[in-house]
Specification:
By secondary structure, the chain is of the alpha/beta class. It is built from 11 helices and 16 strands. The protein folds into 3 domains: about 100 residues, no CATH class; about 90 residues, no CATH class; about 150 residues, 3-Layer(aba) Sandwich (Rossmann fold), CATH 3.40.50. The strands form 3 sheets. The protein has a 6-stranded parallel sheet with strand order 13-12-11-14-15-16, sandwiched between helices. Strands 3-2-1-5-4 form a 5-stranded antiparallel sheet, sandwiched between helices. The longest helix is centred in the last third of the chain and has 17 residues.
Length: about 400
């Protein structure tokens, strides 16, 4: 949704009605993740994509119907991968797409949602996309609840349901998870009467690069391309300058371990953050790794040779880190791509980060028989009753 937000807001702000199709669930090799959206404007303009071209035509027609009637619905598109090409679904897989009409009347909270996204403030939009065995006259489909860390707007149709969903969604929002959850009609967490789609708009995840070197400049560039908010930190002011790192959101002159400790204590480093230590100098990297390996982060990597890595591990053990804490460290940093230049090395590091996020092996796809896209939420479904990938 984020990629079409400005277009949608422009029409909404002008008092126009827009048809919106949003991916809420995927299976197998579906090409777009949950949260991807396509708009059909009041003039018939199509914006965005839900499948990379496979089912856009069908979604376009359904969205036009939604504009005309105001009737939302959950549509399923796709067949097995083996049969996909015959019906034009060249990627195979299955998509569940929620189609609705959005305008000022149906979504009065949308302006506040857009303001929060633009300000970098976290907000989640919860929509009831399916309801089984609804009590007579109590159809919740299409009801919407907007959740901020400190307030809510709208309603899913029941105060108890709103309360239960608010508590759970704030946990999802803290990690930027977009997914579906299931509840009973009155908020029962073990119920499955209602399917709710949670679209989280969290601030960009952070990439913090320690060491103001040429490799850091290349990594900052690819980190920004991947959607991270990039910080470059180094204690040497002559090297840590905004001019040398134009792609970084900020360049900080501070000892790395002091900066990271202060950011973590202030709650500005979460479980989505990636921390890349490129200093390969013990007086810098050992103190910052002591902090990095003890705080929540998606990835901690450090540059250096294998000899440097062994020396670093010994120093970390002497500093009191456990074997479990040290095992979190990706070192030497990056995947084996044969990289030589700073740019190639940045690709190697980025590839390792992406593989870790989605459970990839880093092997060539042509040598594998496993699914191309991994559903990482399968690991959490028993615990959280989630049903769609992050």
């Amino acid at each position: 949704m984020r990629e079409v937000l400005d277009d949608l807001f422009g029409w909404w702000d002008a008092g126009k009605s827009v048809g919106v199709g949003t991916v809420v669930a995927t299976w197998k090799s579906a090409p777009r993740p949950a949260g991807a959206s396509m708009l059909v404007g009041p003039d018939g303009t199509a914006v965005g994509s839900v499948s990379g071209g496979c089912v856009e035509g069908a979604v376009y027609e359904r969205a036009q119907e939604a504009i005309a009637t105001g009737s939302p619905g959950l549509e399923r598109y796709g067949v097995s991968d083996d049969d996909a090409f015959a019906v034009g679904l060249t990627c195979g897989g299955i998509l569940d797409i929620w189609v609705e009409r959005i305008d000022r009347e149906s979504y009065p909270e949308f302006g506040d949602v857009v303001a929060s996204v633009r300000d970098g403030a976290p907000v989640a939009v919860v929509t009831c996309v399916a309801s089984a065995a609804a009590p007579t006259g109590d159809d919740r489909v299409g009801h919407r609840l907007v959740v901020w860390p400190d307030r809510v707007a709208g309603s899913l149709g029941s105060a108890r349901l709103d309360e239960a969903v608010t508590d759970d969604v704030r946990g999802l929002l803290a990690t930027g998870r977009t997914t579906t959850v299931h509840y009973g009609h009155d908020g029962e967490r073990r119920g499955d009467d209602l399917t709710l789609f949670v679209s989280s708009f969290a601030p960009r995840p952070r990439m913090i690069v320690f060491g103001a070197i040429d490799f850091a400049a290349a990594l900052a560039r690819i980190g920004a391309f991947l959607g991270y908010r990039v910080t470059v930190c180094d204690a040497r002011p002559v090297f840590a300058t905004a001019k040398r790192f134009p792609d970084a959101d900020e360049v900080v002159v501070e000892w790395p371990h002091r900066y990271l400790r202060a950011e973590a204590d202030a709650g500005r480093v979460d479980e989505r953050a990636v921390l890349c230590v490129l200093t390969h100098d013990p007086k810098f990297d050992v103190p910052v790794l002591e902090v990095a390996l003890r705080i929540p982060a998606a990835y901690v990597g450090a540059m250096g040779s294998r000899r440097t890595h062994e020396d670093r591990l010994q120093r970390l053990r002497e500093a009191g880190l456990t074997a479990e804490e040290s095992a979190r460290l990706a070192s030497p940093i990056g995947l084996d791509l044969g990289a030589r230049t700073p740019e190639e090395t940045a690709v190697s590091i980025a590839a390792e980060i992406v593989a870790g996020r989605w459970g990839g092996s880093g092997a060539r796809l042509s040598t594998l028989n496993a699914a191309i896209h991994r559903d990482t939420d399968l690991l959490h479904r028993d615990e959280e009753e989630l049903s769609v990938t992050f």
